Structure formats: C-alpha cells, structure tokens
C-alpha cells in the first residue's frame, strides 16, 4: 500500500505547537533586536542585536517547519553561555536571569527538532 501523500496544508497538533513556538521565538527576536539597538545607542553590548537576528531567523524557519530553525535557536542558546561568562564570570546569580528562560525554551525546541527531522525524513520534498 502506498504511503499517504504529504500536503503542506495538512497540519497536525505538533505543527501547531511548532507554530506557537515559532511565534514566541520571533517575538523574542524582535524584542532583542529593538532593545539591542537601544543598548548600542547607549554604548552597550552588540550581543542582543546579534542574538535577536538569530532568534528571528530561528522563528522564521520554524514557521516553515525546517529543522534549521531549531538549530539556530540552539546556536543562540549556546552562544549565550560564553557571553554570560564574559559579562558576569561564574557568579551563579548572574547566570540565572541570562540562562534560565532560554534554557526552558530550549526544551520544546529540542522536542520540535526531533519531530522536524523525522518529518523531513518521511517527506524529503515537502
């Protein structure tokens, strides 16, 4: 029996969860870009603008249901660790506000990555 054809319009629960995750990441990206430009104007770090661009791209690719979106988020998360060390050293209380939220968001991103990779293998031309 032939496998059912995949239509880009056939969306399951996981797809809707990924869309919601993409929207959250896009909004964070825009917030970081706008706030980062303000910080640069005040003489601050370029980190927020650069991270915001990566987050915005991550959200965009997640909306397109591409694994690249999850990988970009994880790249931004990983880059936040050396930035945190640079900013506050190894002070645990300085790490908490910089990494707690992004790490919580990384959990559904990793789960979505597993779904997106499986879906890409099943439907490579979708």
Structural summary, described in words:
The chain has 126 residues and is an all-alpha fold. It has 4 helices and no strands. The protein has helices at residues 13-41, 47-63, 67-88, 92-122. Helix 1 (13-41) runs antiparallel to helix 2 and helix 3 (67-88) packs antiparallel against helix 4 (92-122). The longest helix is centred in the last third of the chain and has 31 residues, at 92-122.
Q: What are the SSEs and their pairings?
A:
Elements: H1 13-41, H2 47-63, H3 67-88, H4 92-122
Helix pairs in contact: 1-2, 1-4, 2-3, 3-4
Shape: elongated
Number of strands: 0
The fraction of residues in strands falls at under 5%
Order of helices and strands: HHHH
> What does the average pLDDT come to?
89
Which structural class best describes the helix and strand composition? mainly alpha
Rg over CA atoms, rounded to whole Å, is 17 Å
Helix content: over 70%
Keywords: Membrane, Transmembrane, Transmembrane helix
Protein name: Glycerol dehydrogenase
Transmembrane segments: 12-40, 46-64, 71-93, 99-117
Task: For this entry, give a set of tags.
126 residues; mainly alpha; 4 helices; 79% helix; 0% strand; elongated; disordered N terminus; Glycerol dehydrogenase; transmembrane helix; transmembrane
Task: Give a quick rundown of the structure.
The chain is mostly helical.
């Amino acid at each position: 029996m032939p496998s059912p054809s995949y239509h880009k319009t056939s969306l399951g629960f996981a797809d809707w969860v990924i869309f919601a995750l993409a929207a959250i990441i896009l909004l964070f990206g825009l917030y970081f870009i706008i706030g980062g430009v303000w910080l640069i104007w005040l003489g601050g770090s370029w980190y927020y603008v650069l991270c915001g661009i990566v987050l915005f791209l991550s959200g965009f690719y997640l909306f397109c249901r591409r694994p690249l979106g999850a990988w970009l988020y994880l790249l931004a998360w990983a880059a936040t660790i050396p930035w945190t060390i640079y900013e506050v050293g190894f002070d645990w209380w300085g790490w908490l506000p910089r990494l707690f939220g992004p790490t919580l968001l990384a959990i559904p991103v990793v789960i979505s990555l597993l779904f997106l990779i499986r879906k890409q293998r099943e439907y490579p031309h979708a």
